[in-house]
Amino acid sequence: MSTGRAGPLMLLAVLPAIGVGCSSSPDAAETATETRSFEEDVESRAQRPEDTEVWEPVPAVVTPGQAGAPPSDAIVLFDGSDLSGWSTEDGRDAGWHVEGGAMTVVPGAGNIRTRRGFGDVQLHIEWRTPAEVSGEGQGRGNSGVYFMERYELQVLDSYDNRTYSNGQAGAIYKQHIPLVNASRAPGEWQSYDVVFAAPRFAADGALLSPAYMTVFHNGVLIQNHVALRGPTEYIGEPPYEAHADRVPLLLQDHGNPVSYRNIWARELPRAP
Ligand code: MG
């Protein structure tokens, strides 16, 4: 048992005993004086408990989902049935394969993106790399979740598959190495839960604030509010360029049949 915890609890237990007195104090008048004195002391303090109680606004009621299912206020981007919320980068219908509640990259069909744009967002997405392992390094189960079509959270089979650390699963590609490797085996479903804050730009295009990402991989924190240095690039580190406040999410066709399911987002209020 922790004595550090017992200390304050014991103090709380002793204080009322002093105030009430009971049989431990034969002098009732003195006990009453002590009680008033204690209460008056509380009353006379500059701050009262209610001074720090904030009642407005009242948070909206949201019904949470079970086991990764969308909460009641989520925007469902893929529920396993169709790709109506998605298109190719040039606006045509997305050509990925939908079966068994999952969508799977059709190599060569191209990247797909959401038909709606997002700024600050909470994203839940489940993904699975092929059970049949082929290729190595960046060629094994490669895909990616791009926020605002530019900022990639890497999807890769990183289960016993060495590559450069800032390019493995859970990396902010070429920018931030994940804190740990929480990968499941190929063929198993995995999840990302992400809090993404969009970058802010001044009217003249100057960067006011970078993008930030916090990422949980299979429930394990792997990116803790990291600041992005700019958009994702294979070669070099390009600077930020101003873009719209809301831009689609994009999933990468990197030539490997990676699958996705249960994708939902919650738009977050844009901080000033
Ligand atoms: Mg990728």
Keywords:
2 domains, 15 strands, 272 residues, disordered N terminus, elongated, 12% helix, Jelly Rolls, binds magnesium ion, eight-stranded antiparallel β-sheet, 2 helices
What does this structure look like?
By secondary structure, this protein is an alpha+beta fold. The chain contains two helices and 15 strands. It folds into two domains: 2-50; 75-267, Exo-inulinase, domain 1 (Jelly Rolls). 12% of the residues lie in helices and 29% in strands. The strands form three sheets. Strands 1, 3, 4, 6, 9, 12, 13 and 15 form an eight-stranded antiparallel β-sheet that branches. A five-stranded antiparallel β-sheet has the order 2-5-14-7-8, with no helix packed on it. Strands 10-11 form a two-stranded antiparallel ribbon. β7 (143-147) and β8 form a beta hairpin. The longest helix is centred in the N-terminal third of the chain and has 18 residues, at 3-20. It is elongated, with a radius of gyration of 27 Å. The structure holds magnesium ion (MG). Magnesium ion is lined by residues 142-144, 154-155, 252, 254.
